[in-house]
Structure formats: structure tokens, C-alpha cells
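haha ok so turns out i had the wrong file open the whole time. this is the CORRECT one, sorry everyone. sequence first:
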Amino acid sequence: MAGTSGTPGTPRVLRAMNDRAALDLLLAHGPLSRTRIGRLTGLSKPTASQLLARLEAAGLVRVTGTSEGRPGPSAQLYAIDPAVAYAAGLDVTPRRIRAAVADITGRTVGEYELPTPGRRPAQPVVRLVTDALDGAVKAAGLVRSDVRRLVIGTPGAFDPGTGRLRYAAHLPGWHSPTLLADLAAELPMPVEYENDVNLAALAEQRLGAARGHEDFVLLWNQEGLGAALVLGGRLHRGWTGGAGEVGFLPVPGAPLVRQVTRAGSGGYQELAGAQALPGLARELGISDVPRAPYAEAAARLVARAADHADGPHRDLLRAYATRLATGLASLVSVLDPELVVLGGSALTAGGEVLRGLVQAELAELAAARPRLAVAEVRDHPVLRGALESALAATRDEVFDTAR
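then structure:
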């Protein structure tokens, strides 16, 4: 393999580290010349040439053209071969499964959406998962065996102790104790499972508002109210996978909910969840409340309110900001994060106006003063996070030239 060749006396592990550094630069910058790669990695021209020869022989990079049109003589440009490997992600909700396949560079090459209406799935979950995956694979012009890894994002979380899905009673068909084993038996690639809000946080950390941050909280409000906790650069999942299920949090201003797992809700969800916005709007005298599913209605209300400087719509936004800050105050008092990212359609719809109101309210309710930012990954963030997770593991495997 590529990692066993090279300049005599050069340690194989060091060569592999240089190879990975060059591959990461190509991922970040796109096509680069040998000179540019050498400059960015600190390698000499001969060493950079040997590195590129190894990567080209391993099929990891290819020449994509020349640097014509730039000052000085033209030079060959090298890029990662996007067909080296593929990874897939699934975003699962009660109403649909959205699937996508990406090449090793992160470019989405195939997408598919499978509706799953009804309280009970018409087909077994394993069949739904494989149908959704196969739809995206087909759209990419590939076959299932081309996919190296799959990450599935769901509400709730699979308890690592029991393998059963918890905190997601509204996801019918996904609570079988044999589900993970059944999926592993059906699919030819490694499969990982992650909470949907955790995946949205991963997307923000890799591509959005949390880039460069090691400690942050993503507050998510869409179909449900939840949070993702990133501490020391790593997702904190908790003992049963339930870290961040803040919808169950008891908060002032909401009745104390008991038997929360049976109710499927808690105080913070009832106070500030998307389903609370239409009723709050009516209480404040807003008559044109959208007739739509509550997450969509909430997003429309919040977006409309952000466009009003005064009147009942601005009163709605202020009341909403206070409710959001009430629960956030508990989170930041315990965690003291550097940053809080506001994600999910019922938060991003308010943009900078809502962010500023929540920031001001939080400053009065909590001693910790994290910076608040609006999520930047708006195009299917859970699915994007699933792809980023699958790609990270795939790259670690494929780009390791010491193997």
C-alpha cells in the first residue's frame, strides 16, 4: 500500500501523517499545486512530490488541470478523487425519512425522501430504512455496496445499555428491542445512530455558527424542543443517551408536569415549544394565526413578528424570548458554555431580532453570559450532520495510508 513506500528511512507513521495533512488541505481548499501543498504543509518540494505520487498511486488524488492564467509558469493541480468512497445519512421523523449520499469530498450526489404518514408505519422500519437509502443510492447512480458507512438521525436516542430508542414515543415502529440487530443484519455497511439535535449541532460545528468552538449548546425548536451539548469539543450524550432532552425541564411559568415520559412533554416544552406559539399569539390578540402544522405555523409567526417593530406581533416575540431565556438560564448556569446556537425553524425564523431579545433576557436571568448566535446551516441540518458524521469516520478509514 501507499504507506509502505517512500523515502528510505522516513517513518511510515510520519508519512501517513503528512498524507492526511495534505488530504485535509485538499478537502478544505480544493485543487492545489504541488508547490502550494508544500508551502501549506511545510514540506520540501521533493517530499511534497513523493507525497503526491503516493496519494496518486493509491487512487486518492488525481490531476485535475493546470494553474494557467496565474502569474508564473503553469503547474499541475491535484484534487481528491471524489469517487474514492461514499457515505450516507438518514434524517428520520414521524412523517418522512430523508436520505442522502455524499462523495468523500462532502458533495451530496443523491437524495431521496420517503413519506411515512400515519400513526403506524405501513411497512417494517427495516424496510423503510433500506427503501430510503436505496432511493438516495439510486439517485446517485450507485449501488448499496458503494456506501461505506451510514448514520441515522432520529428524535430521542438509542440507550447504549439496552439498544432501545428512548425519549421518542412519537416515532412509531422504532421501539423494537431487536431493531438495531435487524438493521445490522440487513445493511452491508457499518451503521451508527445519533440523536437528531446532536447531528444538527455537529453540522454547526463543522460548517456553521459553532466553527472553532469547543464548548457550546445548540438549542433546537422545531417539532420538539431539545438541546445538544458539546463539551471539550465532544458531544455529551449522557448515561442513557438523553443529555439535552430539555423539553422535560421543569421551568417557572409552566405547570409542573409529572410522569413526563408518559406525557411525552415537560414544562419547558409546554412553555416555549413550537406548539405553544399559536395559542400565545391568540392570547395577544393576533387573529391571523397560520393554519398549518404547529412547527410550520410557529416559524411563520416568528418570522412575521420579527418584521414588526411594535404592536402585538412584537409583544409575541418579546414573550417568546422571555420563555426561551427561562429554560436557557438553567442550562447556562450549569454548563457555562462559550456559545449558544439557536437552531430549528421556530428559532431561526426570528433571525437576529429574536437572538437579540433572548440575549438581553438571558443577561438578566443568568450569571453566565454566553454569546448567542443564529444557526447557519439551514438546508436540512440534521441530514447534513448525519452526512458529516458518516464522512468523518469514512475519511479516517480511507485516508489512513499507514494501513
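Residues 286 and 312 are 7 Å apart (CA to CA).
again sry for the mixup
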